[in-house]
Amino acid sequence: MKILTVCGAGQGSSLILKMNVQDVVDELGLDAEVDNGNISTAKNSGADLILAGEFHEDALEDFEVPVITVSDFMDNEEIKSKIQNFLEEKGE
Amino acid sequence: MISEYLTKDNIRLGVEAKDWKEAIKKSGSILEVNNLIEAEYIDAMIEMVKDKGAYIVITPGLALPHARPEKGAKENGLSLLTLKEPVKFGHSKNDPVKVVISFCAADDSTHTQMLSELAEFLKVKENVNYIKEVDSKEELLSYFENYDRGR
């Protein structure tokens, strides 16, 4: 699975989110590659899942790729439970 | 080492700011005084929020303003500013902001180490809460040094 974290510039918030998502991926033992980028390049990134701040919800609305939004980038529990919910819904 | 990036020269505590723009300006001016950015970088940080929203408020009470490297960033660097009175940035959940940590990156990759250490530090809620409350720069600097020693 390829996970992409995105933010406006693609080098600040998304990078921090990427690190925390990576921690969660390791903790859950998922076979996933985590990368970060900006919103404008996210659409054609080939990612299976996108994580972003709640702020970007509107910009990501018409994406075909599933999007998870988080409000607190530093809260690994929030990130973890949202990724787990996503995987459950996906049936994995 | 967090104490390597946040030194006595780039920390200001208990600063007054009437709104989020002034908070970013004052935070950015620390980077400018330390010769890490050109003045235009500060405007670019403000534009970024106007343009893309207050998503830079990454965790309750803490904003991380920044702009693209080509907007006048000279080197990688951080500045830390705490506000006397918190201000709203326009984030639905993480407002109001008490701590403003601005950063500049010379390019898209070399700042990774700096941000990764910052993220490690901010992940611990007690650290964020400590920064929100502390009013002595000396105490904050020794807090950073102790944190680095403990790692």
TrEMBL record, chain A:
Residues 1-92 form the PTS EIIB type-2 domain. GO terms for biological process: phosphoenolpyruvate-dependent sugar phosphotransferase system. Transmembrane segments: none annotated. InterPro entries: PTS_EIIB-like_sf (IPR036095), PTS_EIIB_2 (IPR013011), PTS_EIIB_2/3 (IPR003501). It comes from the Bacteria. The keyword Lipoprotein does not apply. It holds the Pfam family PTS_IIB. One of its GO terms (molecular function) is protein-N(PI)-phosphohistidine-sugar phosphotransferase activity. CDD domains: PTS_IIB_ascorbate. PROSITE patterns: PTS_EIIB_TYPE_2 (PS51099). Keywords: Transferase. This is PTS system IIB component (L-Asc family). The lineage of its organism: Bacteria, Bacillati, Bacillota, Clostridia, Halanaerobiales.
TrEMBL record, chain B:
Residues 4-147 form the PTS EIIA type-2 domain. InterPro entries: Ascorbate-PTS_EIIA_comp (IPR051351), PTrfase/Anion_transptr (IPR016152), PTS_EIIA_type-2_dom (IPR002178). The keyword Phosphoprotein applies. GO terms for molecular function: kinase activity. GO terms for cellular component: cytoplasm. Keywords: Cytoplasm, Kinase, Phosphoprotein, Phosphotransferase system, Transferase, Transport. One of its GO terms (biological process) is phosphoenolpyruvate-dependent sugar phosphotransferase system. Pfam families: PTS_EIIA_2. Its main location: cytoplasm. It is found in: Cytoplasm. The phosphoenolpyruvate-dependent sugar phosphotransferase system (sugar PTS), a major carbohydrate active transport system, catalyzes the phosphorylation of incoming sugar substrates concomitantly with their translocation across the cell membrane. The enzyme II UlaABC PTS system is involved in ascorbate transport. This is Ascorbate-specific PTS system EIIA component. It comes from Halanaerobium saccharolyticum.
